[in-house]
Design goal:
Layout (H helix, E strand, L loop, with lengths): L3 H11 L56 H7 L9 E2 L8 E10 L6 E12 L9 H16 L6 E7 L6 E11 L2 E12 L2 E12 L7 H22 L3
Antiparallel strand pairs: 1-2, 2-3, 3-7, 4-5, 5-6, 6-7
């Protein structure tokens, strides 16, 4: 039991917020050095209409990300959570991205030490005339998140399946990873609702020889949390 505390601290440090997409501009190739003579100037043309895109479905994220998952769900998925209220992870703009993290070691039975962690992350994509609608941008970002989940933390044996009944579309990625000689089972659910992408990662491990959780139980837990996280987006945008 004495060697578990350092691992828990490292797990907290490893949690990450999804990287935001950045648009870059273009510069003039000749730096403006070439100038046309007045006689060679082309006739002035009428200004073109600005391109328009469909307005994004959701204007904001839930104001308190750690409250998007019910306490009873945390009690079930992360028994003896270190912080039942969760830990909000840093973000540059809480209206565009937000994450919350829970972890805990259930040591009631010294012969069955069970560790669990849960991370819920949101990414909101706004509609942009140069980048496309928020929904299309969210679809692309969701695809990137699924691909990322298949290799994160040195994952192996990745399996990706559709997750039914979660938002406008969702996938669940099941993986196995190894940290500090302990084997972890993980499930990452990536769900899109309108122009928001919800990513939920749920992990479990048995420490000091304890049996690992069943892969199906981990996958179900991740999907249960994802359903609550997705519902919180619509609730935050009512009215």
């Amino acid at each position: 039991m004495h060697r578990t505390a350092p691992r828990l601290a490292r797990l907290l440090a490893c949690a990450a917020v999804p990287v935001m997409l950045v648009a870059t501009g273009c510069s003039d190739d000749d730096g403006g050095a070439k100038k046309k003579s007045p006689s060679a100037s082309a006739p002035a043309s009428a200004p073109s209409a600005s391109p328009s895109v469909k307005a994004a479905t959701f204007a904001k994220l839930p104001p308190e990300v750690c409250k998007t998952i019910a306490e009873k769900t945390i009690d079930s998925l992360v028994p003896k959570a270190k912080k039942k209220e969760g830990e909000a992870l840093p973000t540059s703009d809480a209206n565009d991205s937000a994450s919350c993290f829970w972890n805990g070691l259930n040591d009631e039975d010294v012969k069955d030490l069970q560790f669990r962690s849960l991370t819920v992350s949101y990414k909101r994509l706004a509609s942009d005339p140069t980048l496309g609608s928020g929904e299309k941008r969210a679809e692309k970002f969701a695809e990137q998140q699924v691909t990322k989940a298949t290799t994160a933390d040195g994952a192996k044996d990745a399996k990706t399946d559709k997750a039914e009944g979660i938002g406008d579309g969702a996938n669940v990625v099941a993986t196995d990873t190894k940290k500090d000689d302990d084997d972890y089972r993980n499930a990452t659910v990536v769900a899109r609702t309108g122009n928001v992408v919800v990513t939920v990662k749920y992990s479990g491990a048995g420490f000091q020889g304890a049996k690992n959780p069943a892969a199906d139980d981990i996958a179900k837990g991740a999907q249960d949390a994802a359903k609550e996280a997705v519902a919180a987006v619509a609730a935050a945008n009512k009215g």
